[in-house]
Amino acid sequence: MKSTKYSEKVLDHFRNPRNVGTLEGDDVAVGKVGNPTCGDIMEVYIRIDGEKITDAKFRTFGCGSAIATTSMTTEMVVGMTLDEAMELNRSDVADELDGLPPIKMHCSNLAADALHEAITNFRIGRGDIVAKEEKSAEPEPGCVVGQDEYLNKGVWLVVDDPPAFKDQRTLILHSGDESVETAIELTEQTDRVILLTPEKTVMTTPELEKRLEESSVKLLTESRLLEIRGEFEVEKALIFNIDEDEEYELFVDAVVIIE
Amino acid sequence: MKQVYLDYQSAKPVDPRVIEGMTKYLHEAFGNPSALHQVGDDASDALDESRKSIAKFINADEDEIIFTSGATEAINMGIIGYALRNKKKGNHIVMSEIEHISIHNIAKHLERLGFEISKVPVGQYGKVNMRKLERRITDQTILISVGMASNEIGTLQPISEIGKLAAEKGIAFHTDAVAAEGLAPIDVRKDNINLMALSSNDLYGPRGVGVMYMQKKYRVNPIIIGGGQERGLRSGSEDIPGIVGMKLAVDIMNKEMKSEVKRFQGYRDRMIKQVLDEVPDSYLNGHPTDRLASNAHFRFDGIEGESILLSFKDLNISVSTGSACTSKTLEPSHTLIATGLLHEEAHGSLQLTTGRFNTEDDIDRVLEVVPDVVTRLRDLSPIYKKK
Questions:
Q1: Which residues of A fall within a CB distance of 8 Å from B382?
Q2: So what's the ipTM on this one?
Q3: Does the reported pTM lie above 0.95?
Q4: Range of the domain at B366
Q5: Measured between alpha carbons, how far is A110 from A93 in angstroms, rounded to an integer?
Q6: Do B343 and A67 touch (CB under 8 A)?
Q7: What is the model's pLDDT at position B387?
Q8: 3-class secondary structure for B187-220?
Q9: Which structural domains are found in chain A, ordered by start?
């Protein structure tokens, strides 16, 4: 079956998604799920009165079935008790949509998971259950594999000749305000500057933050550089996504590590 | 509402003039070219004529044209056939990171057979880096394969330079010309091309026909063994109607390519300018200038390609995307990743490729709806942040 061979119901929810948006308030919980490999990110918001779900909203980045399944889930859960909603699973949602193409059953059908996460978050907040302990403190990031090997072959500890970065896809590790400034300056040389930070945002001065936002610098948050790869010179960076616990290769020409 | 077709890179309609000219060979001149009677002679004459025209189209000689069942088979013969034939000379092959997927899969197959494959990275616009290509060559290298243009982002490769380098080093040069044929002139002599794959459909001929060009003194092992047609290189009774169809498609190209390409350039430049102007946080994928005349390839922050494609489908517009959600493997386009994009960026891509039967009205139609489609999907998206 073609991956886009959708039922009329799926197409209807794709064309006219129900309950798009977000909710706010003390009685609201949110669950977020995502899979970076197949590119779907879903947020489900629920409003809860005692044990009952009284309202639901969603936002989705993803393919047709990702949008349709979150839309359908928000329709199905309003009126349910929390226990009932915890029972709702992926195949219930797919069935209600008259089925999904087999290849879309997994990663584009995470809406029920987002719903369960929202309920769990709500129950934790109310004190019904205890949050699972966060993963033990992250291991100290070791040095980047390949940093010495590729030093001056695409790995730079200082940027003293910006024009040498012309059209180079440049990855800069956030190590303080100087690295942010360097990233912004390099956008004059190349369309592609990526600033990498293990944090959720780039911590810097308000002035730099504003300049960064207005610049073409691409932010890569919650990520670490594990390894630099290439034949003879820098060609790829192995990036670790902390949030998703996944590694992937990114093609780059230069890596700037200002210590 | 009339269907607007902007996916010429994935398939082209057969030109009605081609259909008209080839049907005779389905029922009147239907003979087997190997047969010695008149009906057979009619077929073998048509085969010879076709070979002559197609050879001329790429500045080759007739005996350098081998008909196949399409470009995929031609690529298989050109790369696998050459590697197996020449394995005593070396076991190393160099190709680019942004070859068509069929070539990446051939590379995997050859690795299992004991060959070593080096892939040359491309720059941010998709061009093969010559310095990196040259550094990958070893004394074991027998073949370099780089496509003339990217079938996805349309970037043109420095074919002349690669051909020259390969010739200097005494290494065979194979190129997959499918994305570029009919959009740019091909001259195998000038560019030092030794092996090349062509498809008939990409010239508005019928599908199921292709050509492997093989320069004299180069040798490949056949992939298909049988009755010894095509000098033993490609057995099986020749598909005369299909081959004649490809020849007729070439004849039309000879007359019309120049003006047609100018027309596509106009469409392309209009699409690129207007989309980038009107849609915030939109970008062009591929090279700003060195790209196929027919190719406009965009990406939009915060939205996903299959949703874009479905939205256009509802508006009776056929487009394509490099998003994972439309691929068999659920992986985003290897070409977009090779240009340095992150997965989330590669997902939000839109490929518009024009062709012979497009009109200005088609371009108007698509340009009219792009901003609305993008805005609607961004309104649903949790990750789009307006700058």
A1: 32, 41-43, 59-61
A2: 0.90
A3: no
A4: 4-10+256-380
A5: 10
A6: no
A7: 59
A8: CCCCCCCCEEEEECHHHCCCCCCEEEEECCCCCC
A9: 8-126 (3.90.1010.10), 155-256 (3.50.50.60)
